[in-house]
């Protein structure tokens, strides 16, 4: 059988093992800092990667970030002054104009 598993959503999660691989720049809960560089997630390296990973598929990237935002909101609820929406979406470059 050579049927590929097409679920429609590709989430970069490695093999699902507990520890994030070095250089993976995966979020670490409950603080949602980067597991590789310690910056607030998504860190600059991760942002770069997400943009090249999802490319023009901004809708899918938003779905992914939205899922992360929801999980982070659970973890960070009531303990921060940071606007998570701003943190997760504020860094995105302006959407290119469609001609
Ligand atoms: Zn990082």
UniProtKB/TrEMBL annotation:
Q: Region Disordered: start and end of each range?
A: 1-25
On the tree of life, the source organism's domain of life is Bacteria
- For this entry, the protein name equals Flavin reductase
Q: Which organism is it from?
A: Micromonospora sonchi
The root-end lineage is:
Bacteria, Bacillati, Actinomycetota, Actinomycetes, Micromonosporales
């Amino acid at each position: 059988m050579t049927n590929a598993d097409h679920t429609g959503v590709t989430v970069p999660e490695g093999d699902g093992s507990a520890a994030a691989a070095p250089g993976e720049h995966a979020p670490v809960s409950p603080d949602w800092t980067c597991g590789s560089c310690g910056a607030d997630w998504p860190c600059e390296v991760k942002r770069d990667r997400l943009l090249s990973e999802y490319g023009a598929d901004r809708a899918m990237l938003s779905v992914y970030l939205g899922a992360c935002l929801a999980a982070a909101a659970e973890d960070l609820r009531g303990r921060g002054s940071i606007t998570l929406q701003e943190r997760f979406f504020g860094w995105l470059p302006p959407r290119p104009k469609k001609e």
